[in-house]
Fold each of these.
Amino acid sequence: KLERKIKLINRTLTNIRVNHTHQVTTEIVKTKPSKIVIETLRVTNMLKNKHLSKAISEQSFYRFISFIEYKCKLYGIELERVPTLYPSSKKCSHCGAIKKDLKLSDRIYHCECCGLTIDRDYNASLNLANYKIS
Ligand SMILES: [Zn+2]
């Protein structure tokens, strides 16, 4: 009886996550961007990181990417994939310098070369947006 209850709770959680991923990906494509650029993340490598694995598998990166893929096709949005080794986080979006000692806990990106101080994820998103240009 308890096993059935646990299964039901897990199914409910999965449904909530799938629904949330649908809502977020729909919200993104409905902003009608000319293109969406995503990193080709090596999820299997990231799952080996004890601290990240639970959060990553629960957020279901694969599901997110597959939803984004088919919704881009549906809405005629270009989807560009950036190779895994592209240093989107470590690169300064202003001068192009590479910060080799960037830790995951560093939430603010500070460039020693040009002095740029910017949110880490925003810096990475600028680098991804300008991927073809650089
Ligand atoms: Zn810089």
Amino acid sequence: MKSPKKTKKTVFLEEVHIKNFLSLRDVVLPLKSLTVLVGPNASGKSNILRALWHLTAMMNMGDLPTDFMQESIWAGKSTEIRFRIGVKIGEVLADYKLELDVTDKTQINVEELIIDKLKVISVYEGEGEVTDEDGKNITSYKPSKPKLALKSASDYGNKPVTSALSEFIQDWKFYDFKPYEMRISNILYEDIKVSTKSPDLDIYGLKLKNILLYWLDNDKKRLESVNKILGKNSERRITEYNEGKNDLYLSEGCEKLISLKKASDGTMRLLAYHVLLNHPHIPSLIAIEEPERNLHPAALKEIASVLERLSERTQVIITTHSSQLLDAFNPENLSSGKMGVLMLQNIPGKGTQIKNLEEIRKDREALDGWIADFGIGSAIFDSELLQDITESQSCQA
Ligand SMILES: Nc1ncnc2c1ncn2[C@@H]1O[C@H](COP(=O)(O)OP(=O)(O)OP(=O)(O)O)[C@@H](O)[C@H]1O
Ligand SMILES: [Mg+2]
């Protein structure tokens, strides 16, 4: 008899609350399928992604390195960094809290997981209790060194929601594609060739060529989807592989093929975004800093569309300085709640402050008209309807 298929729970990160992490003295972020962080230089956009990166890194490692966070604490008076996330897992709400004392070496002050009002993890000053999600099987928790209970608790007993949450956090990816390194990356294809599935895209995109090669050999449909985009306004397409040289070629309508090592920065980025979109494994949350980098304004429509399509399958967070990229998003996604725009400022002594465009729109009628007529970017940067919010009060780096 066939074993019943395991259905994967859909997990959605609804809210993140961060305290005393870099410029994030006390911020609450409501998250959507696609969340865009906007704000002047040094307003704290990257710090938000750094905070989330630390969470996934801690979950992946399990152990807390002892001197992990000292350099990351808010420069004002504080001894504790706090993270709290609100997550919807299927129909169930989970509230996970992690408070770290970072004065001397990093210690866990509080770790709590509440699933539908039941406290599954309750750890205070490094020790406590973990129970199953039906309230049974209470076990005491006292690791010899600081360790996240969320990671180990999901390994035993009846904890499907806890496991889904732990896996969800571990799968977040923070992409930072590096065109130069992607071009010269010389990871041998031979080992990947025999793999039974597409290699995952690493955060710098160094495996991009290998993934394309794998698709050329085993999954032509995916390569065709990427080529369709590449050739949209030109003759370009990825064609063949020279096994001896471990190289992949672009056909650009000339007699000879051109090595992918000679492709432009923007082309490499465009390829990376499309490989991400067409890849069979899409991470549970994707963060990208300034996806507009290296791209001509006309290509930003393509990027906005990739991000919108990605956000139909996973959660996406981006930072941007590009009014044109913001204009390229469908404003209906804003009204329907699929997309959120968070506007950041870093106020001296107070740290990063966040204003949610959704909230601001409620009492500024003219803003909706402007967004519909000219786009989200024009409304934020050109309309003067948000001047009081967008005017830089940041402490410049
Ligand atoms: N420990 C700290 N306490 C308070 N503020 C800090 C701390 N460490 C860094 N900062 C501040 O955080 C700010 C940098 O934030 P961040 O890198 O997130 O900016 P950003 O919005 O991504 O800017 P950009 O658009 O230039 O990339 C700087 O003003 C820096 O002084
Ligand atoms: Mg930044």
